[in-house]
Every structure is written in structure tokens, then in C-alpha cells.
Amino acid sequence: MESKPDCQPGENTSSASIFPQQHEEDTLPWFAVRLFMAKPQLVMDYLTEQQLHYFIPMEYVDVEDKDHHIRQQLRPVVRNLVFIKKSKPEKAIRQLLMDAPFKSSVIRKSKDDSKYYEIPAKQMFEFQAMCNPEIAMRKFLSEEQAKLKPGTPVYVKYGPLKGLSGRLVRSNKKYFLLKEIPCMGVMLKVARWCCKPLQP
């Protein structure tokens, strides 16, 4: 029987998994959509009305109320970005976005290809799990910042991040698992010894 190495103690090394429940048949890809406005509630209301599944990375921020009390409030990490599941044909989603009360632009495969770039279901599922606002020691990066981070492709074999894959990077003498998707990246603190290199 293979023995498990002792994961370094830390915020994300408990035995509880961070994964939300996922249906096995849920293999639909996602689109990344840039918004040309800063009204996320209008966007969410429209997508819900059109029965489109969407995801907006959220985080807790400190907000001071009129009585000067500080309270935490969930707000979008990036106000001009939303991810939409391909639960309808691309042509139908394209038309719904054209008819929307806001302007947007879907990330495409390339400058020469008009088809939308599809984020694989597994990659998006892992990204959503890592964006859980309840998780401690998490950092969000722009796409450019993520690409500049040197790291080794790994998968997590032990602990609450078990099953996740990404790049093992170092920041401020700590190790993080970095997951990249179009337009942004997210890093979670992880024990290096819980990670195993991905085979080429």
C-alpha cells in the first residue's frame, strides 16, 4: 500500500474536498465573454432570463456602510468578464448576445477564426472549484500575469485539492497551484509535497 506524505500544514491542506457536486454527464464546454460595461446584475438577470448557465468569479471585499461599520460583501473579481456554458448551440448563444441589453465580445479561437473558443468542461470545473470565495490563501491574476509565472505542470494527489491540475508556482516563499483559462488565472496555496509532476 502506498503511504501518503505528510502535507505541510496550511489553509488548504485539510481533509475536506473543495470540489462542488458535479454530474457525470455534464461535459458541456464554456465560453469566456468580455463585457463593455460594469453592471454585472443586468448581465446576470438577462442570462438567467434566457436560461443560460453562467459563472462569474466572486470574492469577499470589505465594505463600509453609512454607520461606518465594516462588513464583507461578495463582488465580482473582474467586473467585465463572465463565463457562459454552451447549453445551447453556438449560433443561438451568438444571437442572444447580439440581442442583449449590453455589449459583449466572446473570446474566439484565433484572430482568423470566427468560432468561439471552447473551455473544456473539466478545466472549467476545476477553475470554478478554485474560485470558491470561502477558500483561504487564494490569488487572482490577469491572463498576462499568469503567463509570466514560471512553474511545473502538476496534479494534486493528496488533500482537499486532490484531483486538481495546474502549474506549481512559487510566490513570497509559498507554493501555489495556478490554474489558467482565457482572460484570467487563479492560484491556491498548496503543499508542494502533495503535488506530483504531470507525465508528458
Keywords:
single chain; 200 residues; alpha+beta; Alpha-Beta Plaits; 2 domains; 4-stranded antiparallel β-sheet; disordered N terminus; NGN-like_dom; NGN_dom_sf; transcription
Topology, element by element:
Elements: E1 30-35, H1 40-49, E2 54-55, E3 58-64, E4 70-76, E5 81-85, H2 90-98, E6 104-106, E7 108-110, E8 113-116, H3 121-130, E9 138-142, H4 143-147, E10 152-156, E11 165-171, E12 174-181, E13 184-189, E14 195-197
Structure description:
The protein is α+β, with helices and mostly antiparallel strands and 200 residues long. The chain folds into 2 domains: 25-119, Alpha-Beta Plaits; 121-199, no CATH class. 17% of the residues lie in helices and 36% in strands. The chain is built from 4 helices and 14 strands. The strands form 4 sheets. It has a 6-stranded antiparallel β-sheet. Strands 2-5-1-6 form a 4-stranded antiparallel β-sheet. Strands 3-4 form a two-stranded antiparallel ribbon.
Summarize the model shown.
Keywords: Transcription. The chain is an alpha+beta fold. Helices cover 17% and strands 36% of the residues.
